[in-house]
């Protein structure tokens, strides 16, 4: 297969798929999407045809297969340096990588209690561990915006991979009506109204499948 192909799950539910899709859109490069609905009898075999882990997302670039959301984004940052997907200064880039890695490997309580479900609107009980995750996310967003806010609406001024990694959380806060603070609310609004995000949300809303 030539060119870039991103294999994703349902756009309504697959938070891991959303992240590299946003980053690919930010490159401006053309790409093909293969969408595989999750949680169906044929899902395992269909994903297995592309992914050694049986999970999405997967990026294919010619003969190359990359099967992890963060590895895909790092590859895209190297392949498309003009897209400036990470901040240019080493110290700022290190911070951006740290908050991105924190999302990639953390926030398990939040993920479990408030799964991405873009179409849903529902109030949920927020318990201690989930509340702690939310507090930490607000802390990250407030700290980043306090330092970089004068350079643009994003965590590090310019849109970066870090913003793509926090986009699914923005949808969760809207889905479950989570009250934040003015800085975090403004960031959620910026994240959800960005053009590429609107496109993803519209596609998620049009999907026929329901899980759970
Ligand atoms: N660490 C992986 C996580 C990927 C992941 O958990 N993907 C889920 C969907 S969001 C999946 O493919 N699950 C397989 C299934 O539900 O059959 C990444 O960052 O790409």
Chain-wise SSE layout:
Elements: E1 4-8, H1 15-27, E2 32-35, H2 43-48, E3 58-61, E4 64-66, H3 69-79, H4 90-105, H5 108-113, H6 128-148, H7 161-175, H8 182-193, H9 195-206
Parallel strand pairs: 1-2
Antiparallel strand pairs: 1-3, 3-4
Helix pairs in contact: 1-3, 1-7, 4-7, 7-8
Glutathione binds at residues 9, 14-16, 38, 43, 55-57, 68-70.
Describe the protein in words.
By secondary structure, the protein is of the alpha+beta class. The chain folds into 2 domains: 80 residues, Glutaredoxin, CATH 3.40.30; 109 residues, Glutathione S-transferase Yfyf (Class Pi), Chain A, domain 2 (Up-down Bundle), CATH 1.20.1050. Helix content is 53%, strand content 8%. The protein is built from 9 helices and 4 strands. It has a 4-stranded mixed sheet. It starts with a strand and ends in a 6-residue tail after the last helix. Bound molecules: glutathione (GSH). Glutathione binds next to helix 1 and helix 3.
């Amino acid at each position: 297969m030539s060119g870039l192909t991103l294999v994703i799950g349902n756009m309504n539910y697959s938070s891991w798929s959303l992240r590299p899709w946003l980053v690919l859109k930010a490159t401006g490069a053309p790409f093909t999407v293969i969408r595989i609905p999750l949680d169906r009898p044929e899902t395992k075999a269909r994903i297995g045809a592309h992914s050694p882990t049986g999970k999405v997302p997967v990026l294919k670039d010619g003969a190359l297969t990359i099967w992890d959301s963060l590895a895909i984004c790092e590859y895209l940052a190297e392949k498309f340096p003009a897209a400036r997907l990470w901040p240019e200064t080493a110290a700022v880039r290190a911070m951006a990588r740290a908050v991105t890695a924190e999302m990639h490997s953390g926030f398990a309580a939040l993920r479990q209690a408030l799964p991405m479900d873009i179409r849903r609107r529902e109030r949920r009980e927020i318990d201690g561990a989930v509340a702690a995750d939310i507090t930490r996310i607000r802390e990250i967003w407030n700290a980043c915006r306090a330092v970089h806010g004068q350079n643009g609406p994003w965590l590090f001024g310019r849109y970066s991979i870090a913003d793509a990694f926090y986009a699914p959380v923005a949808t969760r806060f809207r889905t479950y009506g989570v009250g934040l603070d003015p800085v975090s609310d403004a960031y959620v609004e910026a994240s959800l109204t960005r053009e590429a995000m609107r496109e993803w949300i519209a596609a998620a809303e049009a999907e026929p499948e329901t899980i759970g």
